[in-house]
Amino acid sequence: MARGPVSLVSQLGEERFSYCFASDDTTTPLLFGSSASPSPQAASTPFVNTPSPLYYLSLQGISVGATLLPTPNTTFALQPNGTGGSVIDSGSTFTLLTDPAYAMLKQAFVSQMNLPVATVSGYGPCFSLPLDPGGVAVPSLAFHFDSADMDFPAENYFLVDPSVHCTWYIFIALGLAIFD
């Protein structure tokens, strides 16, 4: 789906495509050409104009619960020298963030979870769960793009593993990479 000459879009001779990233189990179509217009109720964000074959989005910020992370405006921006930026990749299952943004995200979850932080090698942060985790409230997570917000269901960024009795977050909902 990239912008290069061997991509599916280029080989079909289409200049437009539309693919909706639903935040639930909804099946969404992949549309090409003139039918590639989002429905009126869908939120959409434009690609950042760049000569790169990758698709860049204008990520403006991230919220955990009601807290907008205090990331500087340049954190997610594509720089004039071609570095930085936010790339959307529908073939990737993980979201990668730069260290400053990831550190802020971790701290926001730690401060809002109201659970003891546990140490589990390879994961983090990890929280010790009570015997009955039914009352545990997981803070919401939203990515704010130019003219659209993407709210994630908790199961897309928190994983409960009873074998280690803790919860940690793993981003799997949106293939988004933020480059330094």
UniProtKB/TrEMBL annotation:
<dbReference type="InterPro" id="IPR033121">
    <property type="entry name" value="PEPTIDASE_A1"/>
</dbReference>
<dbReference type="InterPro" id="IPR021109">
    <property type="entry name" value="Peptidase_aspartic_dom_sf"/>
</dbReference>
<feature type="domain" description="Peptidase A1">
    <location>
        <begin position="1"/>
        <end position="180"/>
    </location>
</feature>
<dbReference type="GO" id="GO:0008233">
    <property type="term" value="F:peptidase activity"/>
</dbReference>
<dbReference type="InterPro" id="IPR051708">
    <property type="entry name" value="Plant_Aspart_Prot_A1"/>
</dbReference>
<dbReference type="InterPro" id="IPR032799">
    <property type="entry name" value="TAXi_C"/>
</dbReference>
<keyword id="KW-0378">Hydrolase</keyword>
<keyword id="KW-0645">Protease</keyword>
<dbReference type="GO" id="GO:0005576">
    <property type="term" value="C:extracellular region"/>
</dbReference>
<dbReference type="Pfam" id="PF14541">
    <property type="entry name" value="TAXi_C"/>
</dbReference>
<dbReference type="GO" id="GO:0006508">
    <property type="term" value="P:proteolysis"/>
</dbReference>
<protein>
    <recommendedName>
        <fullName>Peptidase A1 domain-containing protein</fullName>
    </recommendedName>
</protein>
